[in-house]
Structures are given as C-alpha cells and as structure tokens.
Amino acid sequence: MLSFSVSRFHSNHSLPLRKPSPTTNASFRIDPPQDPYTPNSISTNTHGSELQQSASSSGDGKVEGFRREKASGRVTGLNPIQGGGGVLLGRKNKKAKEKIYWVCSNCGYTAGQWWGVCRSCSVSGTMKEFHEAKSSDADSKVHGFAVLEDGVGSWLPQQEGELRPLRLAEVNRGLDHLHWRIPLSGPFGNEVSRVLGGGLVPGSLTLVGGDPGVGKSTLLLQIAAIIAEGHNDGEASPVLYVSGEESIEQIGNRADRLRIESDIYLYSSNDIEDILKKVQHLSPGALVVDSIQTVYLKGIMGSPGGIMQVKECTSALLRFAKKTNIPVLLIGHVTKSGDIAGPRVLEHIVDVVLYMEGEKYSSHRMLRAVKNRFGSTDELGVFEMSHSGLQVVSNASEMFLSEQYLDSQVLAGLAVAVIMDGSRTFLIEIQVLIKQAGLRLQEHAVFLNVVSGLTLAETAGDLAIAAAICSSFLELPIPNDIAFIGEIGLGGELRMVPRMEKRVSTVAKLGYRMCIVPKAAEKALGTEGLEKMKVVGCRNLKDVINTVFPNIMKRSK
Question: How far is the first Cα of the chain from the last one, in angstroms, to the nearest whole number?
Fold first, then answer.
C-alpha cells in the first residue's frame, strides 16, 4: 500500500489548480493489484483543482468508493462532470494471450523457444510447436494429480494423523510377501505371472504396448477374467474394463468368443473423471483402460492422444492406483518405429511396461517386459493366438525347429543351438544354404515377379516360388490345377504355415485338382470339403519336384 501527502504545488510547470487554498492537503491510497493485470493508464483532469482530495465531508466516502471499484476491476477517481478534479486509475481489458512453446515428442521436454536438437534427450527434429490460450483465472488449470480430490476424493482411504517418514522395518511389518501379489492361476496365468515377476502387484500401473492386431485387448481381457474369478481364498474380485475405442457390445462379443463368463463389468467412456467416479460404486479388483491414447482430462490442452493429455491422464491413473491399492492396466498404441505413442515420460510414470510381439503372418506371440519395478525384465512369455484366445506354448522350442527326419539329405546344413532368454531355455535351428533340389542354378539369373505388383511378405509363398523356378529351369509348365502351400527352409525341408486348413479349403472351393502341402499338414487336415481335390504331403523340395515333374526326375537318374 502506498500513501502520499501533497502540500501545495510550487512549480512553474505544475498542473493548473482551481482556487488553491493556502493549506491544501490532498492524500490518496493505492493498493497493489492482486491479479496479473497492472494499471496502465493514469489520466489527470487538468480542469480540476484536487487530486482525489480528501475533505472532511466527502473524502472518506470517495476513498471507499475507490476501493470498491478497484475490486470490480476498474478504478476511477472523481467524476470531472460532477465537479472537482480527479485521477483515473483503471485497467484496460486485454484479450487472453496465446502462449507458444515447444515440446519434444520423444521425451516431453518443454522449452520456450525452438531448438534443432532437444536439450534433454539430444534427439534432433523432435521439437513441436504448441499453442495454449493464457487464461486470466489461474485456478482453471487442471492437473492429473488434482482430479481425485474433486472426482473420487470423498471415498478414497484417508490417512490418519499427520504423514511422516516411516522406518523400513515399519513399512515391512505385517506384510506377507508370499501372498502380497495378486495370483494369476492356470497355464495362461502362470505364463503372464512369470513375465510380471510372480504376479500382479496391488496398486501397480502396468502399460502394455504392441502393434495393431497383435492381441493386446485379448491379453488384458483374459487377465481380467482370471482376476475376476477370485484368488486362492475364493474371494470374487470384479474387474472394470473400460474402452474408449470399442462399444460394450463389441467387447462382449469378444468375451463370448473367448468363452469368458467371469464377473467383469464393461464400460465405454473417454473421460478420466467420469471413469474414476464409476469405479467407486464397484470397488473392483483391477481397472483396465483401453487405451491411454483415447482418454482425456477436462481442462488440459489438446485432444486425446496429445502429449499433455497422455501425461496428465496417466498421472491421474497413477495417483488413483497408489491411493486405492487397485492395479491399473493400460493399453498403449505404438508408432511406426515400434515405440509406444506419446511422450517418453509415459514409460517413466508407469511401474511396468510390457511389449507384445508377433509376426504378421504367424500365430505365435511373445510377451516381454522392458521395465519392471517389481521383478526382472529378462523373462519371456510365449503364446499362440487361436480362435479361443491366447494359448500357452508348452514347448516354445517348436517355434524355432523344423521337422526332424532321419534322412541325412534333409538334415544336411542344419545344426541346433541352445540359448537362454531369462530363465527359459530355447533350442533354435541354424541353417546353411546348400543345393538340396539337385538343380544347378549357379550360372543362371533368376527374375521373380508377382502378378499385379503385390508385395509378398508371408512365408506361405515359398513353395510356389521354388516350384516356379524349377519349372522355368526345366522348361516344363506346371498344370494350372495345382496349388502350393508351405514354407521352405534353407535345408530344403517344407514347414507348416498358419491357418493351413482355411487355405486348403479355399483352394478346394476354387476347383483345383491338387494341393501340395508339407507332410505335417497332410496329417492334420480333415477330409470335409476336400472330396474333389487331392492333398499331397511332401517332406522336402525333392519330393515336390518328383510329384510335379515325375518323368524328368526319373530321366535325370
């Protein structure tokens, strides 16, 4: 507060005063502003003889009026029209300014100006420009850690007394480490528990990433079913599955396909505050959010999936998990490079980061932990995707080994290595390319083309490519009613490919007379719908040539 006392004006350049009295005393008070705006204009009435003059009859009332007007955002002195001079102290209403800043899309570092290289993670070309409208009300900003106070703060467990640092012995007192984690029973649950380090930790925040269609939603739906079935003591634990991408009918359809009948509650929403309010009515054993890139928090700049939204939504869910001791499982989208979409700080906030991997045309899936605050990151879970969901692969080495035969010609160029991944042992096959078909192609150039310019990525086309090369080399056409399905190893052996039954059924419907497949597939295929087509199983590439070109191979012998 500033207080001034003015006695006379003795200056040749002073403002003209009206009838100055010999003992004129003027005083006025200016309180410092309590908001971001500052007085930017002071106008002086040149026709007045008093500056907010304090008289015995009206000075106090005018000062009170000055204060009341200041509180409303506009401060004025005396009205010159009503008589008397005055000083006008006012605020000029300004429009909300737009704040511009740059955020690193890799680590979330924020800077007030553009940098070619992020000063935090040293990655170039990641600084993105963002605009934020500057609000005059500072209290209107919302952060993830403040959501619980308004949304679900009333039912959260309250701390008794004043919080204080605790001794390590006090923290561990009464904690049963053997039954601390939430167990996941069954073969599928045991495989997931191995990756998590022994089970799901209460109050943990777990993020699951992976390519689109790899099976992230299926994985978490099956985990939710195991948790909802109850623990070893038989207690039922309802699970809330929230999706921002699918309707509850679509999730229910998937659950029916997976034959899940557990106590799972489904909810479709994108609002974090709304989701947390719904949780209090269920008190679930776990919360699943699919996915973190589709939810938003009111009051935070940007659309769902933006850097600030992802960060603040994750912070709100982290606070919820720690306060309620309810585990939260999130699904995260990935970028083209395979990283989880959003700022890198997202992976720093959560407790566990799991990646689900799998080839596009393979039914096998691998679950790996890249961050785990409660266990090792060296464990690997191996599953196989089927119509009834993810199934555990009991012998994971079958994925990396070809069919074994006693024929030494097939085994030539093959060797088996033993590797370790975490606590698991895998046998993998090493192959060396040698001549297995008996054709001397060293001096010939081979040009391969796929009709219509289609890019062939899956290995099921290996056998057809090899048959076409043999036909071109022998200058003998292949009958147009024969189809080929199978993968060829470098040792010349034929290997199974996914969805063999569906492929063979399609060939039969198109009227083909013969279909050549690996020997292992011939035994697994049924006979329904294949009455008019002959399925021939071959062990290696030589068997294929003998079947398609029998006369040529006999003549070469």
Answer: 112
Residue 503 CB coordination number (10 Å) = 19
270-329 pLDDT per residue, tens: 999 999 989 988 889 999 999 899 999 988 877 888 888 888 999 999 999 999 999 999
> Closest Cα partner for 322 from 356, 281, 373?
373
Task: Estimate the crossing angle of helix 186-196 against helix 216-228, to 10 degrees.
Answer: 110
What residues are paired with 488 via a beta bridge? 494
Cβ count near 47 (within 10 Å): 11
Q: What are the pLDDT digits (tens) for 433-491? A: 555 566 777 777 888 888 767 677 788 889 998 888 888 888 888 888 899 999 998 87
Is residue 314 within 8 Å of residue 341, measured between CB atoms? no
**101-106: long-range contacts, CB 8 A cutoff, minimum separation 24:** 101/129, 101/130, 101/132, 102/127, 102/128, 102/129, 102/130, 103/127, 103/128, 103/130, 103/307, 103/308, 103/343, 104/128, 104/343, 105/307, 105/343, 106/343, 106/344
